[in-house]
Amino acid sequence: MKSREIRGLVWIAGGVVVGFGLAAGLAWLAGFVPLPPRTALAGDDEQLLAEVVARVRAEYVEPVDEGSLAEGAVRGMLATLDPHSQFLDASEHDEIRISAAGNYVGVGLEVQARDGRVVVVAPIPGSAAARADLRPGDVIVSVDGEAVDGARVDDAILRLRGEPGTTVVVTALRDGAAPQAVSLRRGPVHVQSVAAVPLAGGYGYVRLSRFNDTTAADLRRAIEGLQRRDGGLQGLVLDLRDNPGGVLDAAVAVADGFLEAGVIVSASGRSRDATFRHDALPGDWLEGAPLAVLVNGQSASAAEIVAGALRDHGRATVVGARTFGKGSVQTVLPLSGGRAIKLTTSRYFTPSGESIHERGVTPDVVLPGASPHLEGPARDPQVAAAVAALSQGTPPAGRLLLTSREP
User: Which CATH number among 3.50.30.50, 2.30.42.10, 2.40.128.630, 3.20.20.70 corresponds to the domain 104-190?
Assistant: First the structure.
């Protein structure tokens, strides 16, 4: 049985997909990345910066904090490069590390923005949110009396976290009833990125909500549990809808779990560390049973790596809507004071050599895009369509007639 060590990282926050290359991920975990040789700005550019700083200091309507001015300059500099490169203050940097590990202190709510509101996707089992009976579909109205904004869901998430043993008041709206306020005590939370449900006819369903350090191992255990049912497992629906990404090597390990050999993903960049390739090891967790992968327009980054690899090798029938189309990798480079920058360092390619950047993964069976059904997979028409593709033997298309791209 294959075994793969998880090392690199890929992360998404606030609707912006972010990635970590393998070697850069190792350096980031160690807290050190060698700096490139220092290069001076050209004379005119240096003069321009000095002039602007001097004007702001002297003439802006209010006094300006020097640190805020420098941070703003760095944020602006990175924002001109692409939508995914950005400056991270210490708290934002910590958030990436916490989310990659899959453990944090909070109330145990999985939420996302829908129609301008912050909606509960699921409470994490055993958490304060689960004990308070918060349910999928509940709308979070406020946190500690302060209204939440669906356009700033990351801000709401940060406000729900805090020191263990402290409390936070969450006001939620359910089915149009009057808002209800509940007091939740923060505590250690382990993010369950894998949820498995048996389906009729001997089929199984597994949803991956994100890719963190434990996802591959949790998925393997979930599949083994489904296989222990009477009659075994006739086929599996792997649901990657609304999955924004996560740890890069977790995505590689998930794809590897269904492949016997071949390229999973490759990447190309300017530096040596930004160019890499991952290949599958022998062994298939499903032992050849058919596989369908559900995707939609919010399946991004690491989710697209999995869908693209399984589609290209003809291992899975991809069902749903065209994916997000995020095919670049960002390296997190630590700075002083716990800060960091995310910098786009490479592009990645599916096994067929295709770049999905701004194009996405095209499904074999196209369905209208939709999020997972809040009442569960048994009532989800897209899950039913994926099961139908399995039961009818819809053949995966496969894309490996193209020449594979060497990194």
Answer: 2.30.42.10
The pTM of this model reads 0.76
Alpha carbons within 13 A on the beta-carbon side of 105: 11
In CATH, 194-329+346-391 is 3.90.226.10: yes
Quick: pLDDT tens for 372-390. 887 789 899 999 999 999 9
Residue tagged active-site, from 85, 209, 301, 328: 301
- In the set 99, 249, 299, 326, the catalytic residue is 326
d(CA 266, CA 120): 35
E-strand stretches of 34-177:
86-88, 103-106, 109-114, 117-123, 139-143, 146-147, 167-173
Question: What's the full length of the chain, in residues?
Answer: 407
Is 221 strand, coil or helix?
helix
Q: Is 144 assigned a catalytic role?
A: no
